[in-house]
Write a structure and sequence with these properties.
With about 220 residues, the chain is α/β, with parallel strands linked by helices. It folds into two domains: about 130 residues, Rossmann fold, CATH 3.40.50; about 70 residues, Arc Repressor Mutant, subunit A (Orthogonal Bundle), CATH 1.10.10.10. It is about 50% helix and about 15% strand. It has a six-stranded parallel beta sheet, with helices on both faces. β4, α5 and β5 form a beta-alpha-beta unit.
């Protein structure tokens, strides 16, 4: 029987990161549950198999910690996830890692990662960042990064840090409302930043802006 995430108090929600544990192996699941329960900064929302993940698409305000049997299953298993995901998987290849990043996976770690490494990854993705093992990050970056074109350099160099954040979220397919929420700014301000980005890069659409930045190696998918 699949159980929904447990209710917690407002005090606990404010102080701790809610974690939904997903693992097909009961032994692995029990180990990850124990890890979460022993942490002073984490709170166990619920735990179960991938069936729980499919039943919890409306669950919000937390992080999913998922133990995946095969790298090939990484994106398929988590494609419906509405929350940032920390995935534990053996020997993920660059192709499956890149696909998983598009499926809301925000950290990919080996299954034998330490308690500290897993806890740090959960905290990092909860803050809106992405964390990859260095070898995976290098391989993924090598697939998309390219030397910056001279024709694009001047416009890209003019982008502000905030505009780069907006551009990165555009590359993830976020709409104005989602960007507004992620950066805690108004939708009006989001529109202003996008207009400025298009003007500086000399392009007419968001897609062209993202393509220009990708070709220059300024952002990664």
């Amino acid at each position: 029987m699949v159980k929904g995430p447990a209710r917690i108090s407002k005090h606990e929600r404010a102080d701790k990161i809610r974690v939904l544990v997903v693992a097909e192996s009961a032994i692995r699941r029990a180990g990850l549950e124990a890890l979460v329960r022993s942490s002073a900064s984490l709170s166990l929302a619920s735990a179960g198999s991938q069936a729980l993940l499919r039943a919890a698409t409306d669950w919000v305000d937390g992080v999913i910690l998922a133990d995946i049997d095969s790298p090939d299953d990484l994106a398929d298993a988590l494609g419906s996830a509405q929350n940032p995901v920390v995935a534990l998987v053996d020997d993920p290849d660059p192709a499956s890692a890149a696909q998983a990043l598009r499926a809301n996976v925000r950290a990919i770690l080996p299954r034998d990662s330490s308690t500290d490494q897993i806890e740090t990854a959960i905290e990092v993705v909860h803050q809106g960042f992405t964390l990859l093992e260095s070898a995976i990050a290098v391989e993924v970056a090598s697939r998309v990064a390219a030397p910056r074109q001279e024709s694009d350099a001047s416009g890209l160099d003019e982008l502000t840090p905030r505009e780069l954040q907006v551009l990165s979220l555009l590359a993830e397919g976020k709409v104005n409302k989602e960007i507004s929420s992620a950066l805690e700014i108004s939708e009006h301000t989001v529109k202003f930043h996008i207009s400025s980005i298009l003007d500086k890069l000399g392009v007419a659409t968001r897609t062209e802006a993202v393509t220009t930045a990708l070709r220059a190696g300024l952002i990664l998918l």
